Amino acid sequence: MNDQRSRNAGIIGRLGRYEPLLLLMFAALSGGVLLFVYLTGEVLEGSTKGFDEAILLALRQPADLSVPIGPGWLTHAVKDVTSLGGTTVLAMMTALVTIYLLLDRHRAIAIFVLVSVLGGWALSAVLKLSVARARPDIVPHLVEVNDLSFPSGHAMVSAVTYLTLAALISGTRSYRSTRIFIVAVGILLTLLIGMSRLYLGVHYPTDVLGGWCAGATWALACWMVARRFISPSRRADGAARDLPPKE
């Protein structure tokens, strides 16, 4: 009887610890979906045109719209940053991380990473085709682009890839500082890549905002699913291997 009461108390205690977090994550997930739907509606109605064009024009020299503001080297740096959100780089990154997780005996997480990232890429393509917004033509493009504009593929796919990888990989680490660093790097890369698309003139600001919103929401959903269905014992076993040996 006492053992049964102890088990029940343990279950109730765990629910008490995780329920506020789960409620918060569900609220953030719902908010992300609603924000993306609202932003999409505003874009389709043309309500964001003035805001979008003002930002793009502010990033160019008034005398020559083909020249961005800032020193000459900045354009080269921004092009390098934007390449980090390209399909080739992200595909290589996903493949290498998946292989690493398999070698590190995190098979369930490795498979989930691959499925999550590919699913996010597919969602990005579907959203682009659904909205079918043309690329901005108010300023000359500094890189070649051919596809549709909303949501920004670079912003969304980089958010899907880097945030999903950061969230799931950090779950295999034992030290808080390491987990914080991994997530911070994922967020920083996502923000830099999205802003680079504005500087290069190939996306409206609302394209990037929509990409960030959709990508971050997808990554959050993937993290919640992984937290619920991937065995905690497997994550604990992986984390235990990271601990330094006892003296």
Would you mind describing this structure in some detail?
By secondary structure, this protein is an all-alpha fold. The chain is 75% helix and 3% strand. The chain has 9 helices and 2 strands. The protein has helices at 2-45, 49-58, 72-83, 87-103, 107-131, 153-170, 176-199, 205-229, 232-242, and strands at residues 60-61, 64-68. It has a two-stranded antiparallel ribbon with strand order 1-2. The longest helix is centred in the first third of the chain and has 44 residues, at 2-45. Mean pLDDT is 79; it is low at 8-18 and 232-247.
Topology of this protein?
Elements: H1 2-45, H2 49-58, E1 60-61, E2 64-68, H3 72-83, H4 87-103, H5 107-131, H6 153-170, H7 176-199, H8 205-229, H9 232-242
Antiparallel strand pairs: 1-2
Helix pairs in contact: 1-8, 3-7, 4-5, 4-6, 5-6, 5-8, 6-7, 6-8, 7-8
